[in-house]
Design a protein that fits this description.
- Chain A has 10 helices and 10 strands.
- Chain A has about 375 residues and is an alpha+beta fold.
- Chain A has 3 domains: about 70 residues, Helix Hairpins (Orthogonal Bundle), CATH 1.10.287; about 140 residues, Immunoglobulin-like; about 100 residues, Cytochrome Bc1 Complex, Chain D, domain 2, CATH 1.10.760.
- In chain A, a hairpin with a 4-residue loop joins strand 6 and strand 7.
- In chain A, helix 3 packs antiparallel against helix 4.
- Chain A starts with a helix and ends with a helix.
- The relative contact order of chain A is 0.09.
- Chain B has about 525 residues and is mainly alpha-helical.
- In chain B, helix 7 packs antiparallel against helix 8.
- Chain B starts with 8 loop residues before the first helix and ends in a 36-residue tail after the last helix.
- Classes of the chains: A alpha+beta (about 375), B mainly alpha (about 525).
- Chains A and B meet through helix 1, helix 3, helix 4, strand 7 and strand 9 of A and helix 3, helix 10, helix 11, helix 12 and helix 13 of B.
Chain lengths: ~375, ~525
């Protein structure tokens, strides 16, 4: 009964939301959307046009074939007293309905081949971005700009679990979007660090697998400023459905301003390595880091998932601190535990180790400082 | 002269009779169909509305994986082998299968394979959660420990399939009654002969790929691990070299079934028999050179993409020939619409729709948008559910009176058809839309813009599942009682199976029939 009421509330809320702000869903799609987007790049428009051409060919053939079928189902039924004919062979007909599809298919091959060759031409790009898939987040490296960052799902857990109303970009929002300039040929170099992922943004007309050990290429020239959303498209484990992609296309000036700001912020973060933090500062920061990076596998209470993801309540967290730092920094080969040393800053690593050693009744009382992490990475 | 069956459980355990083994295959596949269907309902229940309500994402992945594995290897393939066991000897005038003891063995290892596969659900870390296509390294380095049991169960299923296929080839090539030349064989026998060759050629490839996984997991090799010099894309090439012929393994015998049913109820011979045989062979051959169309987004060179795109589009030609021939068979016939005919007509229409979306998927640039979305889910369910499941259902209604000696209840049969037909379309048609609108497959939660289509799909799935319970009732009721069936059952059906009494005696064609 309560559930029913909640369902009804959610439904009404959804309707209200939809009427109140028709634009909120428009940038990615809308309710009852039933067709492919034509997108905002020359490639995506090309793909859309191929899709529609092929669709109409299919409709035309279906109308003829099903038409003949339905007519004969109506006319040639025993209840109308017809006598069955006895013909069962015609070479002319067989040749005819072998040739016609061949002609249609050849007609479709020509534009498809042209588009494919154009889609594969990644030459003369103005900006290169390396995209790396991780379980379950994306990393963006701006080549030649000395800038790299991770992009995580930012939808709160309460919304996923139905404890809070869902926002307009539910599951399609991230903390740090990929920002690119408009009217510029951007080349994406796509790879992965663990399992296979796929980077897919419908409005850009790009879907490319991110494969460990391979670097795939794709490109886009985005023509309109805006926010374009997509998702991982290759099953990559438990949180496959929770690693969205957000691309923000800005004008050249806005892009430059953003770049400068990001580079300054990265420097400020690096400077924190030398600072000494109090226990409370580390614990608090560690809680946030844990919630964003570790919780998917090791769970909110540190209990893990038996047989796949080890518990951090007890276990390794109450062992020697050097081992703890090592596994967080270097990962555990042959398991799903990644090497976070290259993914998180020294501050965040120190904070999360401190948090894990003191949360959920672990109460080790010790802590790691950023400089300890730095020293560990240097091999001291 | 004819010996009756043994009594009690040993009849089923030790039987070498093709009819008994056929029945066991069919009951086993129905049980798997129900289990796989329940897994699908768990998936549809979680996807009923946005948000995580019922299961954990990891368990959701186990459900999608096992739904696929059980339906492919447990429901569809054994059902076709069951029909082959029952019908092929009777259709070619043979007393039994060529290798009856192996026949018993190839059935009886199956329950153990599936018991092992399903038991992984209760193991620490859970069952397989990497999709039925089990792409490495998600299925190797990152897999739950139970993956070893999964690999072993795949091995057993493969052995069973290969033995079944050898048996069918040996039977068809050696046991035909005098006068039953190859080009006089019913289409069902032809399609199964070609299917059996596909099975023998690709099941070892599947065994090879899972063995490579086993080596990577336990013996330190790096076939699919890039960090050790291996290649994750190699897995996909080998898997789909098996996987693509596999999908034709699940559809060619279906072509044979509807090619038997449509002429009977159109009261007109099958149009273009010879071209049907050649088209089936052409589809079988082409199935070996199109595998990488499942991999358009892995980053193949443009020449590779073009080759696989052209080859895939070519498959539309022989498939089109088959559809046109069925339509030409109906044209100017005198049709009636009993349950098997309804399922067969639905097969032709819905399979064609699935074929059309397949053609769209073949266009490599467009596939960049379709790939791994619900559009693909809609496509392969349109070819597999109305393709394999509807044809099997049609075959069961068509031959049930021959097997049991009783007519099924026509009103209930038609009710089953309409419930299944409506359920299927309500479930799978909206998936075209959610996929084109941008919903990836294999996700447990989604944005609100996909909510409406998903809710409709979930309602349809419940309807489709419910319809199968009615099917179970109809079959049991027919086995137990019902109007006596005549020898011919239908009006002038073609084929040797209609020249023996209903129910078919335990041993048929002890002396070979005369084939004109």
């Amino acid at each position: 009964m309560l559930n029913k009421a909640r369902g009804l509330m959610a439904w009404l809320l959804g309707c209200a939301l939809l009427m109140g702000s028709p634009a909120t869903l428009a940038e990615y799609g809308k309710r009852w959307a039933f067709n492919m987007t034509s997108g905002v790049t020359p490639s995506s428009r090309e793909i859309y046009s191929l899709h529609m051409q092929m669709f109409w060919w299919c409709v035309a053939v279906s109308v003829i074939v099903f038409g003949i079928m339905f007519v004969s189902m109506y006319l040639h039924r025993k209840s109308r007293g017809v006598k069955p004919a006895n013909f069962h062979e015609s070479t002319v007909l067989e040749v005819f309905w072998t040739a016609i599809p061949l002609i249609i298919l050849t007609a479709m091959c020509v534009p498809a081949t042209k588009s494919l060759i154009a889609l594969y031409d990644t030459s003369e790009a103005k900006l290169d971005v390396v995209i790396t898939g991780y379980q379950w987040r994306w990393k963006y490296d701006y080549l030649n700009e000395d800038l790299s960052f991770f992009s995580n799902l930012s939808t709160p857990r309460e919304q996923i679990e139905g404890l809070a109303p869902k926002g307009p970009h539910y599951l399609l929002e991230v903390d740090e979007p990929l920002v690119v300039p408009i009217n510029t040929k951007v080349r994406f170099l796509i790879t992965a660090a663990d399992v296979i992922h796929a980077w897919w943004v419908p409005a850009l007309g790009i879907k490319k697998d991110a494969i460990p050990g391979f670097i795939n290429e794709s490109w886009a020239v985005i023509e309109e400023p805006g926010i374009y959303r997509g998702q991982c498209a290759e099953l990559c484990g438990r949180d496959h459905g929770f690693m969205p992609i957000v691309v923000e296309a800005k004008t050249q000036e806005d892009y430059q301003a953003w770049l400068t700001e990001k580079q300054a912020a990265a420097e400020a973060l690096a400077a924190l390595t030398e600072k000494t933090f109090t226990f409370d500062e580390l614990y608090e920061r560690g809680q946030q880091v844990y919630g964003q990076w570790c919780v998917a596998c090791h769970q909110a209470g540190g209990e893990g998932m038996p047989g796949i993801f080890p518990a951090l309540k007890g276990g390794m967290s109450v062992g020697p601190i050097a081992d703890h730092i090592d596994i967080v920094v270097n990962g555990s080969r042959g398991t799903a535990m990644q090497a976070f040393g290259s993914q998180l800053s020294e501050v965040d690593l120190a904070a999360v180790v401190t948090y894990e050693r003191n949360a959920w009744g672990n109460n080790m009382g010790d802590m790691a400082q950023p400089i300890d992490i730095y020293n560990h990475k240097q091999g001291n | 002269m004819a010996h009756g069956p043994a009594k009690g459980f040993s009849r089923w355990l030790f039987t070498t009779n093709h009819k008994d083994i056929g029945s066991m295959y069919l009951w086993f596949s129905f049980a798997m169909f129900i289990i796989g269907g329940m897994f699908a309902l768990v998936v549809r229940a979680e996807l009923f509305e946005p948000g995580m309500q019922i299961v954990d994402p990891n368990f959701f992945n186990q459900m999608t994986t096992l739904h696929g594995l059980i339906m492919v290897f447990g429901a569809v393939m054994p059902a076709f082998v069951g029909l082959a066991n029952w019908m092929i000897p009777m259709m070619i005038g043979a007393p039994d299968m060529a290798l009856p003891r192996m026949n018993n063995w190839s059935f009886w290892i199956l329950p153990f394979a599936f018991f092992m596969l399903l038991s992984t659900l209760f193991m620490e870390g859970g069952g397989p959660n990497f999709g039925w296509t089990f792409y490495a390294p998600l299925s190797t380095t990152y897999a739950p420990p139970s993956v070893t049991f999964f690999i072993f169960s795949i091995h057993i299923m493969g052995v069973s399939s290969i033995m079944g296929a050898i048996n069918i080839i040996a039977t068809v090539l050696n046991m035909r009654a005098p006068g039953m030349t190859l080009m006089k064989m019913p289409m069902f026998v032809w399609t199964w002969l070609i299917t059996a060759y596909l099975l023998i050629l690709v099941m070892p490839v599947l065994a090879g790929v899972v063995t490579m996984m086993l080596m990577d997991i336990h013996f330190g090799t790096s076939f699919f691990d890039a960090a050790g010099g291996g290649d994750p894309v190699l897995f996909q090439h080998v898997f789909w070299f098996f996987g693509h012929p596999e999908v034709y393994i699940m559809i060619l015998p279906a072509f044979g079934i509807v090619s038997a049913i449509i002429p009977t109820f159109a009261r007109k011979p099958l149009f273009g028999y010879a071209s049907m045989v050649y088209a089936t062979a052409a589809i079988g051959l082409l199935s070996f050179i199109v595998w990488a169309h499942h991999m358009f987004t892995v980053g193949m060179p443009v020449a590779g993409e073009l080759f696989f795109m052209y080859a895939t589009m070519l498959i539309a030609v022989p498939t089109g020939v088959k559809v046109f021939n069925w339509v030409a068979t109906m044209f100017k016939g005198a049709m009636t619409f009993e349950t098997p005919m309804l399922f067969s007509i639905a097969f032709v229409i819905l399979f064609t729709i699935g074929g059309m979306s397949g053609l769209m998927l073949a266009i490599a640039p467009a596939d960049f948008q379709y790939h791994d979305t619900y559009f693909v889910v809609a496509h392969f369910h349109y070819v597999l559910v109305p393709g394999a499941i509807f044809s099997i259902t049609a075959g069961v209604y068509y031959w049930l009176p021959k097997w049991t000696g009783h007519m099924y209840n026509e009103v209930l049969g038609k009710t089953h058809f309409w419930l299944a037909f409506v359920g299927l379309n309500v479930t799978f048609f909206p998936m075209h839309f959610s996929g084109l609108a941008g919903m990836p497959r294999r996700i447990p939660d989604y944005h609100m813009m996909f909510a409406d289509w998903n809710m409709i799909s979930s309602v349809g799935a419940l309807l489709f599942g419910g319809a199968q319970i009615l099917f179970l009732y109809i079959v049991i009721a027919t086995v137990v009682r019902g109007k006596k069936a005549t020898m011919e059952v239908w009006e002038n059906p073609e084929g040797l199976e209609w020249t023996v009494p209903s129910p078919a005696p335990y041993h048929t064609f002890i002396t070979p029939p005369d084939v004109k």
